[in-house]
Write the structure tokens for this entry.
Amino acid sequence: MRNVTEDTLTKAVLDTISDDADPRFREIMTGLIKHLHEFAIETNLSKEEWLGAIEFLYQTGKKTTRNRNEFILLSDTLGLSSMVDMISSRGDDDATAVSVLGPFYIEGAPFIKNGGDLIKNNAGQPTLVKGCVTSTTGEPISNALLDVWQNAENGKYSNEDPDQDDDNLRARLNADDDGSYSFTTIRPSPYTVPEDGPAGVMLEAMGRHPWRPAHIHFKVSAEGYQDLITEIYPEDDEYIDADAVFGVRDSLAVEFKATTSEAEATRYGLKSPFLTVEYDFRLRPL
Ligand code: BEZ
Ligand code: FE
């Protein structure tokens, strides 16, 4: 291994991986080493640039806490999170498309009854969200659990905004036996991903904006089915085709439809007109 050259170095490094290493780990490390070496050669990477990248990763680590993972934000803004999402749902065309979890999910949101309310004191356009949870073959799934979270009219999630209650615009609810679910909320707002760290510096240097289209996050689970993590987006949002984290899929862009039904307004305690979103979730059996 003494006379390594640009041509022999990659193989020399790969040959150091033990035959006893876990086969999948070996496969991943082999790919990573090959691509890193090819990347350095292809871009003619200088020492200063390489040290700059190391410093960038150091700063990314320094910015990271349990509540603010700058590495995940980096992965999201580089499209890697969405790529992994799509790889892991290959062949799942009958199931609802997945979308990024994001950094604002909090476990253990309070339960509301099916048909319950998240609006409380929030300003914003009242919105009724309703639909059905089914299997990929269309059979209703009884008692599925929906975990819902979104931002307020000012674009902030409760865990970014000291003026909101911790549980604001977050809830868990169980669908009925026939799979139906509904709740009232406000129309979410577009917002910028956190820009005050290395990911923000990178976006700026690339000449990219940090905006995400408005969305409601969902985690849907039911016994015997694969958990679904996704988002639905108002199809008329100005950033629908320019999401900073590449989370939008055609099937997740939905109409927030102006509605004047007095019967539904009364049933849900809303003032007409309000917005209605109808969305069915299709879960993949385990
Ligand atoms: C979010 O949707 O909450 C989100 C996703 C990725 C990065 C930042 C925020
Ligand atoms: Fe979000």
Remarks:
- Residues 75-283 form a domain with the Protocatechuate 3,4-Dioxygenase, subunit A fold (CATH 2.60.130.10).
